[in-house]
Amino acid sequence: MLPCYCPSCKAQLKVKSLKCENCETEVMGNYELPILALLSTEEQDFILKFVKHSGSLKEMANQLRLSYPTVRNLLDEIIEKIKSYEK
Which residues pair with 17 in a beta bridge? Predict the structure, then answer.
């Protein structure tokens, strides 16, 4: 998983450079990480499953073998986390 927070002070990391392994071109700057990259691996997996199931919480509940309200709560928690990153 991509490190998103400083191991020393826990501040959010930013991307400083990107490099093409094919031609060695390097792009330098100070870029924010995408919001989805800040989510945990489990939360990212949930979002991928959500998209693959066309946003059907009912289908996700069946696949995950969880109740619909539990899956709804998981989604609501991720939504709140995303909203907190946007501030």
Answer: 28
Within 10 angstroms of residue 10's Cβ, the number of other Cβ atoms is: 7
The number of C-alpha atoms within 13 Å of 32 and in the hemisphere containing its C-beta is: 6
Give the confidence band of 63 by pLDDT, cuts at 50, 70, 90: very high
- HSE on the CB side for 13, CA within 13 Å? 12
Phi, psi angle pair for 8, to nearest 5°: -90, -55
The residue to which tokens 């899956």 are assigned: 71
pLDDT single digits (tens) 7-16 = 999 998 999 9
Beta strands in the chain, from DSSP E residues, in sequence order: 15-19, 26-31
What 3-state class would DSSP assign to 56? coil
pTM for this prediction:
0.77
Gyration radius of the chain over CA positions: 17
